[in-house]
Amino acid sequence: MKTKIKHVLKGVILLYLLINFTSSDAQIVDDTNKLSLTLKDGTQVVLYGEASSLSDRKSKNYYYLPVSLRLGAKPDKTPEFLFLKYITEEKEANGGIGGALLHMLMEWGLTPKQQKEVEQILAKGEQGARKKSKLKGALDVKPDGDKSLRIISATLTDGKLAPSVVQSLSAPVLPGSKVAVASNLSANGAQLLAATFEKTRSITDLSIEMGFKYTTRIPAAKGRVIVNWSEVKKHFERDYAKYEEVRGKKKRGGLFGGIADALFGKRTEVKSRSYDEVRSVIDHMVEKEYIKVDFDENIADDRVTKIREAFFDFFLQKMTESGDSDVLTPPTEKEKAAMPNIKYGKKYTYNRRFFESSFKKKTETYYLNYRLAVEKPFTLTANLASWYNGVKNNKKCVGTVLMNDKFFTHRDINMILDLEAKEMFDKEVNYVTVNVKKERKSGKHFNAYTTIDKEHLKDSGLKATISYARGNDKSSEVYQYQTQWSLKGGNIYPKDPEWQEGSWQSITLFPPIVPRTIEFEADLEELSALGVVRATLLLRYYKFGEEVETNVPLTVSKDEPLVEKMIFTDRNTQGYAYQLVLTHKEKGKMALGWDDKINDDYIYASIPQELKDDDPDYLDKIIEAGKVILKPGADGKVSKAASILDKFKDVIGIVKN
To answer: Which of 341, 290, 298, 351 is nearest to 320 (CA)?
Structure first.
């Protein structure tokens, strides 16, 4: 007698725990009191009757499962849907863009018209309902998993076709609550998705699936379920020992391999199981009588089948954690039977804490003499094809835009370094800085700068760009710029650069100096016959507005009749001055006098006839001139006392700054 009372108390406690397995505030409906109604618009509505306390009486109060997934609407009835295709005038290669924005809000629940129709069907007792039945509203549901809102679309799941996708993660649990899906589509993605909207209209490439759970009560039948956890544990441990013998395997085989992996761990990541795999584990436990289901003899009642299935659902929820599969695979027949509206299969991972705590119990008994409250999954799916007809002609929802608003345009100020300047960066130039300013009639004036140095040339080539935002500025064709060069030795040129008016096509950055490769040639045999051992070419030219000197020596003994020397002269000059200095092995230096060269970089060491004739007066003159040659400074600069370029200024076009 005590044993019987003990079992009854245990059953009552179990009933309490099972009923409170879900939220204590959740509605509980009667699984045997179900109605399926078809409305005039074709909508299928599933209703469950309210569960009666401590009674099998069928209630006339009904709640409906989530239904009628649709686009949300504003108070003015405008659908909350946007499909906006956009393009710019510029091609993609020139910075243009094209694509589409997709944004929509969705909700579920009976519309006022549908709700009124359901209420009339129930009140009249039509379609299987009893007369004077009532609609109490939507059934309390909760999201099924962490990501209960799923986007099903080949386009939106392709990172190239849809670079950006944003969505709500959880399905809304209240009718009228809204969730969002938004995407920025590439040009190809926009065209592909638009084709399924507007051309291939049987179904679009965008479906939304929402997963829910609701609590239902299974009727009572006399019986019990005994779980022999000791036997289950033995099989897990045997499987684990077998796995330890073969360490090279990446996963355990056998029916219980996945559970053993969850309990004991393995060397690779634990993979999830399908619905059928988990179901087969539980079925195998029943077959081997690790789980033993007993009912009174001579019971032939559909309630027995329902209780078996309810217990499986209960056990499935306890021993696993479910989630959406990464791969969209069709559900199996068993999965469809458990979740009639499911479109794609789920994945299941074993709950380690549940098994570890259960193993400690040795044996566990569930008495089925009492009503059982379990959670059941439910999915709601809709395709955009069913909504698009209502929005396709609404300009507030579907449209195109040519992005040519001048307010949003940018102008690129391109600065291109002259080709001659590239080789100067190693020899004469550190960097060049370009300052740009643009006065706006309203708002803050635009000021920017860029610097081109050796690293810039290496990474980006000869071009640098400054972008200017037009905004409300109507005089966007006018800007000014100035350039300043940093030279070897720490010099800045010019010291105070002038502002110049720029062109939108481009600015060519000409350095203030240009390279000249001077070729100096002589007749070595002629020089040797005259007793000359070296001929030196003295070059005078303007560089950054100052007179500098460079010497180009040619030594007879080296047997090189032609030598070259690169110099850098101011861009605004046409030429330079030069003097030939001969070094005689007995008479010393002989300076032959200054001459000019205009746009010619070749100089031949022409020997005067007076020198060839050994004219004594001429020899005295050039030898004396050789004695007073003044050396320039270390940087080649010439002192004012030694300057000679002023007398050639009119010839070679020198303009001093």
So the answer is: 351
SS3 356: helix
Split into its structural domains, the chain has a count of 4
Same domain, 51 and 108: yes
Chain mean pLDDT for the chain:
80
CA atoms 617, 618, 623, 629: torsion sign: positive
User: Pick from 600, 626, 597, 599: which is nearest to 611 by CA?
Assistant: 626
Residues 248 and 415: their CA atoms lie apart, in Å, by 63
Q: Could you give the CA distance from residue 134 to residue 63 in angstroms, rounded to a whole number?
A: 9
Selection from 457, 466, 459, 450 nearest residue 429 by Cα: 457
Phi, psi dihedral angles at 436 (to 5 degrees): -125, 140
Intervals of the chain under pLDDT 50: 1-24, 246-250, 267-269, 297-299, 655-657
- The closest alpha carbon to 69, from 193, 178, 219, belongs to 178
Same domain for 361 and 232 = yes
Residues 229 and 284 in one domain: yes
pLDDT tens digits for 57-92?
889 999 999 999 999 888 888 888 888 888 776 666
Question: Are 180 and 36 in a shared domain?
Answer: yes
Q: Is 7 inside a domain boundary?
A: no
103-131 pLDDT, tens digit each: 889 999 999 999 999 999 999 999 999 99
635 in any annotated domain: yes
Cα–Cα–Cα angle for 232, 233, 237, rounded to 5 degrees: 125
The domain in which residue 290 lies consists of 221-369
Under 8 Å between Cβ of 11 and 226: no
Answer yes or no: are the C-beta atoms of 591 and 581 closer than 8 Å: yes
8 Å CB contact between 216 and 376: yes
476 contacts: CB under 8 Å, gap ≥ 6: 406, 411, 468, 470
- This prediction has a pTM of 0.48
